[in-house]
């Protein structure tokens, strides 16, 4: 096997692992929205005590949680470290839309570090990770704006 083939195989495995991790955290966020819909629809903060373990911080129409919130709810294993195989942490935003009483809670999970090598974004590996993560995954070229359909 050539060195380049080994490197490609390693990169494919890494991309697949990152996709699996994103899918895992995405499924946990979906579960969290189901469990805490009442608190999210009223944009209630949670300090991490009592029956609502949090932490959850809400401002405007957006609530932010982190991976520890999902661990506290039992939706991720306690061994989850909040950093993917590409050494990027996650930011999880939950946005309330619609009108009362039928609010819709949309979740957005982003990684905090772009997947790049040198000055070039590795769209090939992002695409492979998205393939593994599934239909709800995507990418954006902006760190401040996300668009989707």
TrEMBL record:
Instruction: Output this protein's name.
Output: Shufflon protein
């Amino acid at each position: 096997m050539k060195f380049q083939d080994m490197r490609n195989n390693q990169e494919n495995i890494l991309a697949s692992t990152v996709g699996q991790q994103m899918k895992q955290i995405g499924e946990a966020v979906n579960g969290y929205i189901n469990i805490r819909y009442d608190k999210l629809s009223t944009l209630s903060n949670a300090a991490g005590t009592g029956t609502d373990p949090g932490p959850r911080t809400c401002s405007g129409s957006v609530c932010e949680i982190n991976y520890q919130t999902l661990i506290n709810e039992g939706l991720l294993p306690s061994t989850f470290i909040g950093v993917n195989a590409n050494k990027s942490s996650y930011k999880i935003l939950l946005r309330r839309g619609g009108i009362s009483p039928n609010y819709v809670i949309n979740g957005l999970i982003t990684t905090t570090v772009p997947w790049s090598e040198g000055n070039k974004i590795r769209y090939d590996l992002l695409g492979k990770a998205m393939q593994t993560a599934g239909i709800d995954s995507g990418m954006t070229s902006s760190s401040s704006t996300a668009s989707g359909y």
